[in-house]
Specification:
Largest sheet: 8 strands, parallel, barrel
Bound molecules: 6-O-phosphono-beta-D-glucopyranose
Radius of gyration: 21 Å
Helix content: 40-55%
Distance between the termini: 13 Å
Strand order of the largest sheet: 1-2-3-4-5-7-13-14
Strand content: 5-15%
Length: about 475
Amino acid sequence: MEQTKRFPKDFLFGGATAANQIEGAYKEGGKGLSIADMMPVGKDRFTIMRRDDFNWDLSEADYFFPNRKAIDFYHTYREDIKLFAEMGFKCYRMSIAWSRIFPRGDEKEPNKEGMEFYHNVFDECLKHGIEPVVTISHYEIPLAIVKEYGGWKNKVVIDLFCKFADVVLTNFSDKVKYWMTFNEINSAYHFPPIGQGISFLEAKEDMTVLMQSFHNQFVASSYAVKRAHEIRKDSQVGCMVLYAPMYSYDSHPENQLAILKLNQEFNQFCADVQVTGKYPYYTKAMFKQMGIDKLDITDEELNVLKENTVDYVGFSYYMSTTKSVTNKELELITGNILAGAKNPFLEVSEWGWEIDPIGLRIACNQLYDRYEKPLFIAENGLGAADILTEDLSVEDDYRIDYLKKHLCAIYEAIEDGVKIMGYTAWGCIDLVSASTGEMSKRYGMIYVDLNDQLEGTGKRYKKKSFNWYSQVIKTAGENILN
Ligand code: BG6
């Protein structure tokens, strides 16, 4: 007789958000400005940030900055977490706004009000039996660190981050067991401003700047791993990468070789260092090809990397990417800071991101095969333009279909033998999009009544996917797997 299929008992089902995309209250509670507060709304958000003269100083007279207000989670966290609990969340992945704890990033003492806010948020989660999974830094470096210190290329920023990490780990570790250090650390390879606080121009002119920033982040991340383990023995600290399996457009050996190299540069390099504690064998060749002569790396730093590797591999998965170096005539497609050849076998979302559930099973197998560490799927979801019906719901069958297919792919990966700790659906409550700043690019199971200019009642409504996901969690997937 066939056994009933279900996810493992301790599988952490939940949802994910980031402070800068939900909290708002950008000047309240002693918070300082972060780079996210300086990002404009609109489909051209990243195009503007790619300009040579972009310097985080767009004016309010010309632009609207949606992250400043976002969905006001700063004031609504109690009701929002209650809704997460109603969905049955076992965990909630969220982040701490660095500039709420250290408004400029270089203060001696943390901001008490900011600390209190996160204590309250964690208490609220725990009250409902929800395990917080906390990203220490998610695309929101304090503005002063970028403007005055030059972002992550400056080694002083390692110390500033270590101080921040030390404060949050020391104060919150009795409430938080699961941590991730940097959100999508490797995303800087394609889009350095938000992860590293360095400009496109700097990275374009000299790849040394980009790679030095990575090194500095690796050291800072290892320090956080070290402190977390010292403070609480059973802490689990993960890296977090943006993972996009790469397909070769065809079987041409030149394309296969290109895939191998591109994969090393983008998908593997950061996790290789953070998981194994050393620079991988291909580093020298890769740096040479990038025109990098030498980085400032000390023996002491190499030791910190070696001694403090991560406990698990967190990753976001939205899409795969397809490449060809031999055929320049192929139709191109972009999505999630990636660009590649259009894959004729895949459909795309309304925002042009390719949809590939099988790619998630491949990603899980590739990562586990390489690292043999438990995986955490920290982000996955469908950005769509939902419509609120007259009876105040959203018939988001397309989202249910997307999530169902991806969850089934995860289950298959588990059956393949991959160890997977949990899954947090991205933007479980509608939030400000990272790439466009739009509210109308919605991922949530909870609808938030706000438009791209953040006008509206801000009221929360349950979408059809809300009840569906709560059933998935309640039955450990039995309702979708059998
Ligand atoms: C990930 C980020 O890249 O993708 C999130 O970690 C982001 O911050 C998510 O919101 C979805 O991307 P977008 O651009 O649709 O918001």
